[in-house]
Each structure stands twice: as C-alpha cells, then as structure tokens.
Amino acid sequence: xxxxxxxxxDARRFIHDCLRRVGVPVAKLRCISxxxxxxxxxxxxxxxxxxxxxxxxxxxxxxxxxxxxxxxxSETVAAAHVDGKNAIGALVGNFCMDLAxxxxxxxxxxxxxxxxSHHIGLAAWYAFRxxxxxFIGLVMSNAAPMMVAPGTQTSTLGANCLAFGAxxxxxxxxxxxSTAMKExxxxxxxxxxxxxxxxxxxxxxxxxxxxxxxxxxxxQRLYPAGEHKxxxxxxxxxxxxxxxxxxxxxxxxxxxxxxxxxxxxxLGLVMLAIDPAVFVSDFEGRLDDFCERITxxxxxxxNCPVKLPGExxxxxxxxxxxxxxxxxxxxxxxxxxxxxxxxxxxPLKLSFECKIKKKECD
Length: 362
Known about the structure:
Layout: E1 3-6, H1 8-21, H2 26-41, H3 52-60, E2 71-75, E3 79-83, H4 89-107, E4 109-117, H5 123-131, E5 136-141, E6 145-148, E7 155-158, E8 161-167, E9 172-178, H6 184-192, H7 213-219, H8 228-243, E10 267-274, H9 283-295, H10 311-323, E11 326-329, H11 330-343, H12 351-361
Parallel strand pairs: 3-4
Antiparallel strand pairs: 1-11, 2-3, 4-10, 5-8, 5-10, 6-7, 8-9
Helix pairs in contact: 1-2, 2-4, 4-5, 6-7
C-alpha cells in the first residue's frame, strides 16, 4: 500500500479549512482538530482524519451542531448530569471531562454523565486530559448498534468505547479499547488499504464470518471481543452512558453514517476523574513499581517484550516523530482531494511540497 507523508501543521490547516467551510467558528476549530490528529498521531487511524468526512456531513445536515454549548442539568459536589445539546462530540467530551476534573479537585472524584452527544473520537484524549492534572481518567461512550451478541445474527449493541489512564512518575498506563474485536474504523481502514481482515472481526449479511471489509461494512455485524465478555462489557457501558443518562441506547441509536439517519444520534457518555491522593500518598511511585513488575515478566519470545496498555500507540508516536510527518495512504489523500475540491479549500500537501514552498518563501 503506497503512503505519503503529510506534515502535522498542514493536516491541521486542512481540517480547519474544511470545518470553516461548513460554518464552525474559529474558536472551536483547535478543539476538534486536536482530537482528530491525536488519533492519527497514536496510530488509531480509524478515528482520525478518516472520520472528518462524516463529521463534515453531520455538521452540514445539523445532526450535530457547532453553535451550541453543553449545559449542566443537575449536579452535586461530585457528580453532574449534562445536556450536550447535540454539539460536536469533541466539545461535549472536553466540557464533561473538565467538569469531572474540577469536581475531583474538591471531592476527590468527579462523575459526569451526558446525553445528546455525538461521536467523541479518540476516547484516550479525554483520559489524558484528566492525567495532565494528576488524576486518573475513565471514559466511556456508547455507539450505533453494530455488534452482535454471542449466538445471534442481529446487531443490538454498539462497539462501545472505554479508555482508562493513570500516570506515575516514570510511566503511565493508557487503555483505549472497543468492546468489539475491532471497531468499524479499523475495518474501513483495511478496505481503504485494500487488505483482508481476520474472519473473527465481523459477519457478512448471511451471518457467516468474513475476511472482506466491504461485506463486513455492509452487514454492520461485528463480533464482540472475548465473545460474551466483550458483549457484557458493552452492555454495561450502554446502561451507564445511554439508559442512565437519558440518551439513546441499543437499537434506539441510528446508524450515524447512514443517509437515512434523519436526526441526531443522541449518544451518551461518562467521564470520571479520580484523585488517587485521596487513597494513597505515593500513588505515582506505586504505579511505577506496578508497571515495572509487569514489564519485567519473562516473555515467551525475547524479541517481543511485554508491553503495557498504550505502549503500542506510544511506539507509533515515536515513529511519527522520526518521520516528522503523518503517514497516510495515497487513496485517503485522493479522497480528501475530492472533498477539498468540493469545499474549495487547498488539499492536503505532501511534506516535501511544504518544505519546498517554505524554502521559496525564505
């Protein structure tokens, strides 16, 4: 698969240009592009710039809005219920995690539940937001029904996301997962790269395992991770995010990329911030010791050492740093060239084009 390099600054410029074309105000551009580019930087390409086309469409059709602000419905010292007002998911997510952190500063824990949200993108982004202020972060969000329960052929739950982050002095843990074997973005990414997928990721329309991304996307029947374990975890997330928040849940959620959607998805989310100092004074040191005990365990293959949650993503970040640019498949760049033409914005430029232009300016 042929790829090309795009400078991070130009990728951000392109995202901002596209968002401005559909009306998003300048003050809100950075918030959205931060989440999109963080996904690509960490190698979670299914939720990065690959999602921009769908965000643009939902904004344009007002399935999500940029001209509203999330609002607190009710709150206590440690908890809050938020109405996302169908705002762009990144705006709702940042608002809720920031609110959870403020409550954790006062009460040791902040538990925020929101309804009427949209796709929040990279869940780890919000956990990192809590970690940056010394808190443990926990993030959950429900999603459109595209995952089957074990023994069934009908999608009744979303590939709901879960992120958990905690930071020590020398190490950190960042779990960012879907409750399905793979989220739909990974299957879209495989189709874009013209690759087969493992047949334990998804079913086709006949209810049989498939290795073809196109058939998997048409059927929208993902297998749960760990069979009943992933299914039960997804159900728990949907109860907290959907049932308890007043948002949509299960098959009440429309397939948010479908042309027949017709209305906002009304997703729910949970943001939790915990102050570990309430429980132990030396949490960071204890977490470092915990991580050391895990990573020092004897691997089956000495060439494949034990990795902590989030370490693969960290390696991808180092890879991008070495390249000094984001690697994107040429087919993705071609797709966004068409979108750029449609919106009358400058397309994504390859990194060497940016450098040549900079030298000419100098």
